[in-house]
Amino acid sequence: MDVHVADHPLIAHKLTYLRDKRTDSPTFRRLADELVTLLAYEATREVRTEPFEIETPVAATTGIKLANPKPIIVPILRAGLGMLEGMVRLLPSAEVGFLGMIRDEQTLQVSAYANRLPEDLNGRQVFVLDPMLATGNTLVMAIDYLRTKGARDITCVCLLAAPEGIKHVESEMTDSDIPVKIVVGTIDERLNEKGYIVPGLGDAGDRLYGVV
Ligand SMILES: O=P(O)(O)OC[C@H]1O[C@H](OP(=O)(O)OP(=O)(O)O)[C@H](O)[C@@H]1O
Ligand SMILES: O=c1cc[nH]c(=O)[nH]1
Ligand SMILES: [Mg+2]
């Protein structure tokens, strides 16, 4: 599995404010949006393109454009929604599918409560958005589900990850011939006994949208 940790002072700066418990929801949403735009730069490095003939005012030339079928962006509800606009801004022609997943805060097991995706993901590049990769249970379930729909090219964009979560996703991928890439803002120290990332930023969904 290919794990790319973004190493950029602007990302580190924005993550610091995102983590700060004094940061209010509007600011948190703005920072998440800005961060995904920076991470998307790396996540889309291998986005499929095709040649495109144009004429500038000076000469004919061959550029490139995004190839068809266009990529599909899949935010994992709720917190992944906070990353959607920033990603769509860079890939405006992408389609968007949705996966709703929630982890039980006691058992840390995940259940899916919603999905709205194209029936066949074969041949599509899929970008999964979820700010937090903690135990990895959510991402493992999401990747499994996308594979059952035919996805063979999956890139996950996360803001923070725990080393335990990365290892877990990696261990689930070992038998797989399907490459999965993870692009993450930073890898934190560890998980605590409640399955929260340390130092982390708390509950991303609650900080974006309020405590439910
Ligand atoms: O790696 P894991 O241990 O599975 O944890 C990560 C998941 O936890 C959070 O979702 P949550 O269940 O809190 O739902 P929410 O986004 O609706 O708040 C987060 O947004 C991830 O989806
Ligand atoms: O630290 C964590 C772990 C899981 N989900 C979150 O929102 N935060
Ligand atoms: Mg939550």
From TrEMBL:
UniProt keyword Glycosyltransferase, yes or no: yes
GO molecular function: GTP binding; magnesium ion binding; uracil phosphoribosyltransferase activity
UniProt keyword Glycosyltransferase, yes or no: yes
Annotated metabolic or biological route of this protein: Pyrimidine metabolism; UMP biosynthesis via salvage pathway; UMP from uracil: step 1/1
GO BP terms, alphabetized: UMP salvage; uracil salvage
Activity regulation field: Allosterically activated by GTP.
Binding site for 5-phospho-alpha-D-ribose 1-diphosphate: R78, R103, D130, P131, M132, L133, A134, T135, G136, N137, T138, D203
InterPro entries associated with the record: PRTase-like, PRTase_dom, Upp_B, UPRT, UPRTase/APRTase
Database matches in HAMAP family: Upp_B
Family stated for the protein in its record: Belongs to the UPRTase family.
Function: Catalyzes the conversion of uracil and 5-phospho-alpha-D-ribose 1-diphosphate (PRPP) to UMP and diphosphate.
This protein's name: Uracil phosphoribosyltransferase
UniProt organism field: Intrasporangium chromatireducens Q5-1
UniProt lineage: Bacteria, Bacillati, Actinomycetota, Actinomycetes, Micrococcales
